[in-house]
């Protein structure tokens, strides 16, 4: 694969044990447990990990800060919500952690449903939500790259704002990358003008190809004034020594999910966004799409990146990921459970085939 491609994992910060069928360990959310995952990612050549967000979960930014302090190369992809943070507060926090870590911060801006009232936030319709997200991303980037920023928008305002510490350029990197997801028309218009990386869920190749083409066209139509949009894939990868073993294990996992015995709790419980619905609809086309994209988990409680799985030997999964890269994907966020052992297994078996 291209040397431009980067491979990250997922760290499931949550007060509930047994996330997506992981071991229901009472120590699952301790600093030592989460650090062991971050350290294993470093040791097995992963770039870093997405750390999810949502009200009722531990604070994502705090966990990212703790893990950065305990590691040397691990890069947290920190999920944040525009209504949970004000732009200047967030820009300052992220700039501080980026400075302390030597430039290891990445940011995933999330606009999907959440328990907004629980933290005093409110949103209007979809157009309002994405208009606010657009302002948030534009203003945060300005605060990272300019001084004495004054901005008056419909949702956010600052006057004479200068973030300290000032971000130091690292090569051609001027600030943390802003990742963004969302499949609705409103979301894609935000991605086309404001995001550095558009993240896709695990759709079939044709669906991803169409979305990349549409986003490139939108970027031109909307006069994008940033470097070209990059594209990423967030998906479950179930890897075993042989193709046969992988499918046997995948089908056994789904059978447990169907019985409600696999800890089917998932991250997308506050409502179904357009991108999530696209994944759920795939099951109507068949249990297996392309060569090895397994849609059955979505029927039985798999949500988000757990809705569809790439299943097979390391060679099978690597072949599929290369096909996504040929479409233009350069950022890969993979995962499977149990998290720690799969960091090691896929770091040992899969990553050498991709880097």
Task: Give a structural overview.
The chain is an alpha/beta fold and 355 residues long. It is 38% helix and 18% strand. It contains ten helices and 13 strands. The protein has helices at 31-43, 60-69, 87-101, 126-145, 185-194, 205-221, 243-258, 274-282, 314-327, 339-349; strands at 6-11, 48-51, 75-80, 106-109, 149-152, 157-161, 178-180, 197-200, 230-240, 288-289, 293-294, 309-313, 329-335. It starts with 5 loop residues before the first strand and ends in a 6-residue tail after the last helix. The relative contact order is 0.15. Its EC number is 1.14.14.5. InterPro entries: Luciferase-like_dom (IPR011251), Luciferase-like_sf (IPR036661), SsuD_RutA_monooxygenase (IPR050172). This is Alkanesulfonate monooxygenase 3. One of its GO terms (biological process) is alkanesulfonate catabolic process.
**Which structural class fits the helix and strand makeup?**
alpha/beta
C-alpha-based Rg, rounded? 19 Å
Q: How large a portion of the residues is in β-strands, by DSSP E?
A: 15-25%
CATH 2nd-level architecture: Alpha-Beta Barrel
Domain module tally: 1
Low-confidence stretches are none
What is the arithmetic mean of pLDDT?
92
**How many distinct beta strands?**
13
Please summarize the sheet with the most strands: 8 strands, parallel, barrel
- Could you tell me how far the N terminus lies from the C terminus, measured between alpha carbons in angstroms? 6 Å
CATH class type: Alpha Beta
Strand order in the sheet with the most strands: 1-2-3-4-7-8-9-13
User: What name does the CATH topology carry?
Assistant: TIM Barrel
Q: In one word, what is the shape?
A: globular
Helix residue percentage: 25-40%
Tally of DSSP helical segments: 10
The CATH superfamily name is Luciferase-like domain
Order of helices and strands: EHEHEHEHEEEHEHEHHEEEHEH
Keywords: Flavoprotein, FMN, Monooxygenase, Oxidoreductase, Plasmid
Domain Luciferase-like: 6-331
GO molecular function: alkanesulfonate monooxygenase activity
Organism: Rhizobium gallicum bv. gallicum R602sp
